[in-house]
């Protein structure tokens, strides 16, 4: 029952985030749809890369496994986001479009994860942090990568990959019993709040279209 409840919330939170953003910014829907479709393509390619790279020898070393897995997520998601902004959405270059994309990207990730992989109460507790931070993190990354694509700033793309890799390493500390679930949720939330603040500053610096 607990897992079912959190699965329901996993659908409600992204939908609410989109409705609020659409009303606030008069946002266009196409970037949201592209965010959803892009994540599905990116996650498929990332999955194939994980099968090829995360072999048995890597799985024997938990830290190596988690670091490489996180790095693959950072590279595929942020490089993929960069290519989408550059080649799929060249006409959707209003600054609110990157947030719309980020909501779509983050929403489908939450929905797929909750629907297929969260199975017990501990996973459901971890989902609380996902709900609180997942959409905000995806939106923040979209702001950074949007800036990288539209202002030719490759250093910002590299920074986004690094920031994404780091947040995906954090769960390893919990999974290897170095921190509690409460500490994990606190670190996640603090990390995303700080990133969101810097993303907001970058967002404000964008030229209006």
Please describe what this structure looks like.
- This protein has 209 residues and is mainly α.
- The protein has eight helices and no strands.
- It has helices at 2-25, 30-53, 56-59, 62-88, 95-116, 121-150, 154-175, 181-205.
- Helix 1 runs antiparallel to helix 5.
Summarize this structure briefly.
With 209 residues, this protein is an all-alpha fold.
**Helical stretch tally:** 8
The gross shape turns out to be: globular
Q: Kindly state the number of beta strands.
A: 0
Q: Over all CA atoms, what is the radius of gyration?
A: 17 Å
> Low-confidence parts, pLDDT < 50 over ≥5 residues?
none
Give helix % range: over 70%
The averaged pLDDT comes out at: 87
Main sheet attributes: strand count, strand direction, barrel closure:
none
Estimate what percentage of residues fall within beta strands.
Answer: under 5%
Order of helices and strands: HHHHHHHH
Structural class: mainly alpha
Distance between the termini: 47 Å
Tell me the layout of helices and strands.
Blueprint: H1 2-25, H2 30-53, H3 56-59, H4 62-88, H5 95-116, H6 121-150, H7 154-175, H8 181-205
Helix pairs in contact: 1-5, 1-6, 2-4, 2-5, 4-6, 4-7, 5-6, 6-7, 6-8, 7-8
